[in-house]
């Protein structure tokens, strides 16, 4: 929140929607060394909904991929942390995302590459429900299933913010019908997140429908579309930080 | 050129374990043998071009060298944002090999025409663009550049020149020397340009790599400051490169290329050539007009 206030940029509620998932991934699930983030054997995470960059930056900084002081330079002219993440600038960022519907098929390609190279690492990708309007999401679901990419897990951040535009219905059934192993979890319950992410299918790709709340943690922002791309001023920041505390 | 594409790619699949071939449900029969030999690296990926490009970026991120092959409008125009962001912006290497350039598939109509591939790909910083004029030239240019770590577009054509030139990636060739004008021939237009230039005092430069553009050779071989650019896609595409190469010299530049419109006829490519004034005679008239103008 401080980063967004300083820069006047950022999608805070989108970041809060997946913050619990990101934390559990980096804290308990991913096999990755912040000091050696390009190790070939590392697990990969792609945040396909790149506008949630504030969330991934905060977790990467907390885990030591770069200094937490960098966060306050978010979206500044010469800084590496942009409104959407850049793999060539930020340690730990696997794919430059921003335009929705790119990260998922890239993750499919990464999973396929690891399979070709007989590399046992896993690939996780987080997509948004709005992003799931994109045709490439369903193309990717077909591809991953056809190629039996059991090293791939897609986490769908189902915060229902997109229902106002296009109802997605039962995402679990949809992914099931595409041939994926599917689960539905509370995307803010760390135990459920950990259990689902640490027990992937051994024979096919796994889809985790994470029921989430956009803006989770801030009563002011929760499911409040006005805050989608709004940044707090100094007074608002003070009040919002109290809510979080 | 398509037969050569199969031969060339079979060779690189054999010699380079990093190479992965993704076919957009075309040319599959030709790669039957390769598919049996390298089942994990040859895939008929299906008819989903946008995801195929992103997927191939994922392959490239992990040290593999993708070759994606399908029909030009679907490879380039439908997947343009994926080429721009996933390869251009991310700085990844890959090879995109099209068939059906401009109106090669004349009878199939506008959905299968692609005269805008080169103009729009030029707008992606770092995208390399290669238009071989013969199958042998494709082989040489592909082998030289396929693993160079950059995104590279190869435009295969149903047409070809009668003889191959000694080509090098990123370099143009002086095919004829003269003083009254310089004619740039791109890819498959070389035969027409050479025939049109017969007995005329003009320089002919042959370009198979358009990006990066060999500006040095143009600078050295344009004594008249008059240039005719003969290009088998929307005309005017190389204007900036020519102007930049010769700046600050005052130049006169003309184009023999395709007009900026939809080609709504059917028939054959040669009928389109006549209709769109892309024949040897049309080029000759333009050269003469330029010399005498």
UniProtKB/TrEMBL annotation, chain B:
Record InterPro entries: PDH/Transketolase, THDP-binding, Transketo_C/PFOR_II, Transketolase-like_Pyr-bd, Transketolase_C
Entry superkingdom: Bacteria
Transketolase-like pyrimidine-binding domain: residues covered: 1-164
Coiled-coil ranges from the UniProt annotation: none
PANTHER family assigned to the protein according to its UniProt record, in alphabetical order: HYPOTHETICAL TRANSKETOLASE FAMILY PROTEIN, PYRUVATE DEHYDROGENASE E1 COMPONENT
The protein, known as: Transketolase-like pyrimidine-binding domain-containing protein
UniProt source species: Candidatus Yanofskybacteria bacterium RIFCSPHIGHO2_01_FULL_44_17
């Amino acid at each position: 929140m401080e980063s967004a206030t300083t820069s006047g940029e950022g999608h805070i509620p989108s970041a809060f929607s997946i913050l619990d998932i990101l934390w559990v991934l980096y804290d308990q699930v991913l096999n990755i060394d912040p000091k050696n983030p390009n190790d070939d054997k590392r697990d990969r995470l792609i945040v396909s909904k790149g506008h949630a960059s504030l969330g991934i930056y905060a977790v990467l900084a907390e885990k030591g991929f770069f200094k937490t002081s960098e966060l306050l330079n978010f979206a500044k002219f010469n800084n590496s942390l942009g409104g959407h993440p850049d793999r060539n600038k930020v340690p730990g960022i696997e794919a430059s995302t921003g335009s929705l519907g790119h990260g998922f098929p890239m993750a499919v390609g990464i999973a396929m590459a690891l399979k070709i190279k007989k590399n046992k690492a896993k690939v996780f990708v987080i997509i948004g429900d709005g992003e799931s309007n994109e045709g490439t999401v369903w193309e990717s679901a077909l591809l991953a299933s056809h190629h039996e990419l059991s090293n791939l897990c897609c986490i769908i951040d189902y915060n229902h913010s997109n229902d106002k535009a296009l109802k997605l219905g039962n995402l679990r059934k949809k992914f099931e019908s595409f041939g994926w192993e599917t689960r539905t979890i509370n995307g803010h319950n760390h135990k459920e997140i950990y259990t689902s992410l640490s027990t992937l299918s051994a024979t096919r790709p796994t889809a985790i429908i994470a029921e989430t709340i956009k803006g989770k943690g801030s009563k002011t922002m929760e499911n409040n579309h006005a805050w989608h791309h709004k940044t707090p001023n100094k007074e608002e920041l003070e009040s919002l930080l109290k809510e979080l505390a | 050129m398509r037969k050569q594409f199969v031969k060339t790619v079979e060779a690189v699949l054999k010699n380079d374990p990093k190479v992965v071939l993704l076919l957009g449900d075309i040319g599959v029969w030709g790669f039957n043998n390769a598919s049996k030999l390298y089942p994990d690296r040859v895939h008929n990926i299906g008819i989903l071009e946008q995801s195929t490009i992103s997927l191939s970026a994922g392959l490239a991120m992990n040290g593999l060298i993708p070759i994606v092959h399908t029909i030009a409008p679907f490879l380039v125009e439908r997947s343009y944002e994926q080429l721009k962001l996933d390869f251009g912006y991310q700085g990844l290497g890959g090879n995109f090999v099209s068939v059906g350039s401009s109106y090669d598939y004349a009878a199939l109509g506008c959905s299968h025409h692609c005269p805008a591939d080169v103009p729009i790909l030029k707008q992606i910083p770092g995208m390399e663009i290669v238009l071989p004029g013969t199958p042998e030239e494709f082989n040489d240019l592909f082998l030289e550049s396929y693993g160079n770590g950059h995104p590279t577009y190869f435009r295969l054509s149903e047409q070809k020149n009668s003889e191959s030139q000694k080509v090098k990636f990123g370099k143009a060739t002086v095919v004829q020397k003269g003083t009254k004008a310089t004619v740039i021939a791109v890819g498959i237009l070389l035969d027409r340009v050479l025939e049109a230039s017969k007995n005329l005092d003009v320089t002919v430069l042959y370009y198979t790599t358009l990006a990066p553009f060999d500006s040095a050779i143009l600078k050295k071989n344009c004594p008249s400051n008059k240039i005719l650019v003969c290009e088998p896609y929307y005309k005017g595409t190389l204007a900036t490169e020519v102007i930049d190469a010769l700046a600050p010299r005052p130049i006169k530049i003309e184009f023999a290329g395709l007009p900026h419109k939809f080609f709504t006829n059917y028939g054959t490519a040669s009928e389109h050539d006549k209709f769109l004034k892309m024949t040897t005679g049309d080029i000759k008239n333009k050269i003469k007009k330029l010399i005498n103008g």
